[in-house]
Amino acid sequence: MGKATGRDWTGWRFAALLTGNVALALGPWSVRLADSGPVSAAFWRLALAVPVLILLARWSGQQLSGFGTKVSWAIAAAGAFFALDIAFWHIGIGMTRMANASLFGNAGSLVVMIWGLIALQRRPHLREWLAITAAISGGAVLLGRSLEIGTTTAIGDLFCVAAGLLYSGYIIILQKYRASLGGWSLLTWSSIAGLPVLLGIALWLGEPVWPQNWGPVVALALLSQLIGQGLLVFSLRHFSALVIALALLTQPVVAVLVGWMVFGEVLDLLDFTGIALVGIGLVLARSTQD
Q1: Does residue 90 contact residue 250 with C-beta atoms inside 8 Å?
Q2: Which residues lie closer than 8 Å to 216 by C-beta, 6 or more apart?
Q3: CA distance linking residue 250 with residue 257, whole number of Å
Q4: 66 CB contacts (<8 Å, ≥6 apart)?
Q5: How many CB atoms lie within 10 A of CB 268?
Q6: Which of 274, 281, 245, 222 is nearest to 23 (CA)?
Q7: How far is 147 from 109, CA to CA, in rounded Å?
Q8: Are 99 and 216 in contact (CB under 8 A)?
Q9: What's 37's DSSP letter?
Q10: Nearest one of 108, 127, 129, 175 to 287, comparing CA atoms
């Protein structure tokens, strides 16, 4: 009975990992449907999730105060990076294809790997060179295809690439605090720190902040910030980086299906080649962090 229960728990944990990635892949759908503007939608994504994140942190017994000045400033800086990340990503979602947005938005893992190599002052190993080469080649293919469609989609791709770079900054800043502070605690305070940044950008861009239709922003907070991020935080404790990376590849697949069925986006063989190359690069990059 004990062994069967263990297998059942493993199945449920893997299902949670896949569910989290599917939820994250559906997030761009809500961004496109929101009538509050893309950056304003990012603001509500965090604002609506914060109360629930606080409850989850307290329920998990994680520290929410008394961090000290140095840690507090680090979390505030990470929150600013995270806010800029989702601001750029949400803008890019409206300008490019959903598959591209999903892939380029996850490119931060490659940057974190390169940063780690620089910090260790060593040359990349074969698997690391393959990761870098595959990701850059696939990105070049996708950017080239976007330029064929129009400059707007290419600019959208660049916004999503910038989002991936900013997300890597968020990860690098908080990397040393992950062991001492719980995931819910970090997610709570980084979200709170990002709120004024997102609100300021939305007002500066002249976006309508208050939604007329609350459905898309509530769905965004639920899918991206609570279910998506929450289940990924949960899964990090139970699976290797390689398994997490392989699961991440479900995001562009779901994004392609949603883009095709809902928004009429069409991808050809060259697009799928670029997606595959970037996906392989991300898997290899994540696997080097085991």
Answers
A1: no
A2: 30, 31, 33, 34, 35, 41
A3: 11
A4: none
A5: 8
A6: 222
A7: 25
A8: no
A9: -
A10: 127
Asked if 209 and 43 count as a contact pair (C-beta separation under 8 A), the reply is yes
Helix (H, G, I), strand (E, B) or coil at 179: coil
21 neighbors 180 (Cβ within 8 angstroms): no
Model pLDDT, residue 7:
43
Q: Poorest-confidence range of 39-43, 245-249, 272-276?
A: 245-249
Nearest to 236 by CA among 163, 186, 161, 173: 186
| Alpha carbons 29 and 97: distance in angstroms, whole number | 11
Residues 68-118: tens digit of each pLDDT: 788 888 888 989 998 999 999 999 988 887 777 777 777 666 666 666 666
Count the neighbouring beta carbons within 10 Å of the beta carbon of residue 182.
19
Q: Which of 207, 206, 224 is nearest to 216 (CA)?
A: 224
Q: Residue 235 corresponds to which tokens in the numbers above?
A: 């899964």
Q: Which two tokens stand for residue 275?
A: 């997606």
Q: Which residue has the tokens 């609350």?
A: 214
The whole-angstrom distance between residue 36's C-alpha and the CA centroid of its chain comes to: 21
Task: Record the tokens describing residue 285, joined without a space.
Answer: 């990059």
pTM > 0.90: yes or no: no
In one letter, which amino acid is 13? R
CB distance 167 to 101 below 8 Å: no
DSSP per-residue letters across 140-173: HHHHHHHHHH-HHHHHHHHHHHHHHHHHHHHHHH
Q: Where are the domains of the chain?
A: 16-287
Helix/strand/coil for 9: helix
Among left, alpha and beta (phi > 0; psi -120 to 50; other), residue 76 is alpha
Whether 18 and 248 have beta carbons less than 8 Å apart is answered as: no
